[in-house]
User: Fold this.
Amino acid sequence: PHVVMSTSKRKSSNNSSPTSKKRKMTSTTGSSGVISNMNIGFIGAGNMARALVEGMLVSGEVNKKNIYASCTSLSSLNYKKMEALGVNVTINNKHVITNSDTIILAVKPYQILDILDELQETYKELTATNPLTGVSKPPKNLRPLIISVANGVLIKEIEQKTQISWNIGGSSMVGHLPVIRCIPSVASAVCAGVTVYTCGKYCNETDVKPFQEIFSLCGHCEEVPEKSISALASLGGSGVAFMALIVEAMTDGGVLVGISKPLGEKIVAHTMISTAKLIIERNWQPSEIKYAVSSPAGTTIRGIQVMED
Assistant:
């Protein structure tokens, strides 16, 4: 078949004001079905990749047979953990590349460019008479969406490495693959993650829609300018650790006055959820919540005074 690679660009640039992509923490995929037959590949099978896979499977919208993941070693713990989830696991990156409609780069930042070199070589080897090395059939998608979850690697660096070429019979093509850079959080594993993302200049709306559906399965998804993505990642990604520290500190306070640790953790965690719901669903400001709870000369305002000191 003759396949034409789209080079259309989105109207909004990375430096424009962000477009709000507020999504509920439940998927709408069941109605639109954009990703129902899509194969999702992960190059890298560490904590973040596993959290995303778990969220997709928990949502019930992605079949484990449609997920592929590559790992460095058959004996590695990451390989065993991913295998236990029932997805397709391999130590061959090309197997993921050739079987996926969307390829998620879930490796360390310093590994990204080497992985992209391998992706380019994979497509260079494609011809009608010369199958890809290590595989027996052409890629499932000749224009896969590339998603990077590596912090610190700019879209322009990735796009420099995603100009690919392929040849099928008498037809050939050279062009750039669409790239989206995002920072998810480990809470994606329970479909409560926060993902901020920026689209590259070779993305069009057809590329963005499956991305939004995939990551909305795992929680809240928000498009932001690339210049803000690292700072927002600290809030949404690292913020999980900061919130955990608050839970731990408040739990310790409960233990100090005789509350068991398991019970204290549960109460504090649910209190954090209820506070978040007031902010998200009722649009309350944190200061409104503070004064709604605080009575004059009461224990709450005295506790806040101690915390602020």
Remarks:
- Residues 41 and 95 are 9 Å apart (CA to CA).
- The longest strand covers residues 193-199.
